[in-house]
Write a structure and sequence with these properties.
By secondary structure, the chain is an alpha/beta fold. It has 10 helices and 12 strands.
Length: 343
């Protein structure tokens, strides 16, 4: 679904790395701040696996505390552009889009894509906006994969990189795709992924809700809600509300197609191609991208000639620490961008 806050970029005949093409390519995106006359002040922001391009502008934005006038990503200086990745469900071309050959949603027939496709699609939008070099590329979680991918694919097109709560190669293999597929196969109306128009009757809506609740718990949101609402029962009800809201917006097939792309991601082997300084950020309680990744990753980046700095967030909120405890690292991000991204 295209959010009311998003804009839409359109292109045609977009060839894919693994073969095939998308006859129509649409990218949903949002901007915060204005481009300067030289169009040299853009920060490309990449969202997480199940998130949207609505990063700021109001309290619903997933990084709204970090983006705005005087913020770490200061919109008095920068134009922040957040693009919904290809394959997602928030307005960009994905499994829920109409296949022109059939007149129906692609569903499980959506072609396999890569993080390289996602990054290359973003370049089309940036060219259309007249942006040659980015001030920075910043990304959270899956968006951190895209941030590293930008660094190794287009090393001269940004002045800084900030991958957050992520890694420079995939965590998890084909078994993670199988696990998602098997979970939805339990739905009586899954129909191999062709469930559109019968989201609730098929059982897919309830399964999406359950998936989201499990995900939010693993992210640390259960702990956050318990602290905010005062009891475990209230937190459970809060998780259920969040899960149902998300399930009304997302697409189960997008979970599959994005996860397939994730397991192919690897920017470790060609880390030496990165030219821009890197700010690498992890949370000390994140089980998805644990702090134990920091030492080998920093050693590898530095040995590859990358100017890399590490920041660890001390927070009880796991994978969501960069959002919920934003004050604990906003200053580091601001200093980093002021040093490397501003000209």
């Amino acid at each position: 679904m295209l959010l009311s806050t998003s804009k839409l970029f359109k292109s045609q005949d977009f060839d894919l790395e693994l073969g095939g093409a998308l006859p129509v390519l649409e990218l949903a995106y949002e901007t915060y701040g204005a481009l300067n006359a030289a169009r040299s002040n853009a920060i490309l922001l990449n969202h997480g696996y199940t998130s949207s391009p609505h990063a700021a502008g109001d309290s619903k934005g997933w990084w709204h505390n970090l983006i705005g006038p005087g913020g770490a990503m200061d919109t008095d200086k920068y134009c922040v552009i957040c693009v919904n990745m290809v394959g997602s469900a928030y307005g960009s071309t994905g499994p829920g889009s109409i296949d022109l050959a059939t007149g129906k949603p692609y569903g499980p027939d959506f072609p396999d894509i890569t993080t390289g496709d996602m990054v290359r699609a973003q370049t089309l939008l940036l060219v259309d906006m007249g942006i040659d070099q980015l001030a920075a590329v910043v990304g959270f979680s899956f968006g951190g994969y895209l941030t590293f991918k930008w660094g190794v694919t287009y090393p001269d097109r940004m002045r800084a990189l900030a991958p957050v709560a992520t890694w420079n190669k995939s965590r998890g293999g084909p078994e993670t795709v199988t696990a998602i597929e098997e979970r939805f196969a339990q739905c009586p109306g899954w129909n191999g992924g062709n469930y559109y128009g019968a989201e609730k009757e098929s059982g897919v809506f309830e399964m999406l809700t359950a998936v989201r609740v499990d995900t939010l718990r693993s992210y640390g949101i259960g702990k956050l809600l318990e602290d905010q609402l005062g009891s475990e029962d209230a937190a459970t009800r809060g998780l259920e509300r969040l899960g149902r809201q998300w399930a009304s917006e997302f697409d189960a097939n997008s979970l599959v197609i994005l996860r397939k792309a994730a397991i192919l991601f690897d920017a470790w082997e060609n880390a030496a191609d990165i030219k821009a300084p890197v700010l690498y950020v992890l949370s000390n309680t994140d089980s998805r991208f644990p702090p134990e990744l920091a030492e080998p990753t920093m050693a590898h980046l530095n040995a590859s000639g990358v100017d890399a700095t590490y920041v660890e967030i001390d927070s009880p909120y796991g994978h969501r620490a960069p959002s919920e405890d934003w004050e604990k690292w906003a200053g580091d991000l601001s200093v980093f961008l002021n040093k490397h991204a501003t000209i």
